Amino acid sequence: VQLVESGGGLVQPGGSLRLSCATSGFAFSKYYMNWVRQAPGEGLERVSGISPGGESTYADSVKGRFTISRDNAKNTLYLQMDSLEPGDTAVYYCVKGGGYTPRGQGTQVTVSS
Fold first, then answer.
1. pLDDT 10s digit of each residue in the chain, 113 long?
2. Sign of the C-alpha dihedral, residues 102, 105, 107, 110?
């Protein structure tokens, strides 16, 4: 199983980023996928999940601002993040399945002016 996140960076409050997670080594289209994040000094927090058929769930803290999607033909998971806030600063990981592992190496998102 390989999960490789990309797309993070430094953005001002109110800005947007699109994270990608390229996957390989498993039947991506058959699995529920998650995005989780870890802020400095904090534990892992589930951000959003998506079923193989495209049904999505969101943490209350990101609802209405983040959009999860998947391209089963490309074995890739996405997270569109709009209206970013300083509280969104964290390392973001994609996760195979509904738990916290296995996950990739993460991509840093920093929201700061």
1. 999 999 999 999 999 999 999 999 999 999 999 999 999 999 999 999 999 999 999 999 999 999 999 999 999 999 999 999 999 999 999 999 988 989 999 999 999 99
2. positive
Per the listing, tokens 């509904």 go with 98
- Contact between 21 and 68 (Cβ < 8 Å): no
Rounded Cα–Cα distance for residues 113 and 105 (Å)? 26
**DSSP code per residue over 55-107:** -EEE-TTTTTTEEEEEETTTTEEEEEE-S--GGG-EEEEEEESSSS-SB---E
CB atoms within 10 A of CB 62: 23
Query: Nearest 5°: phi and psi at 75?
Result: 55, 40
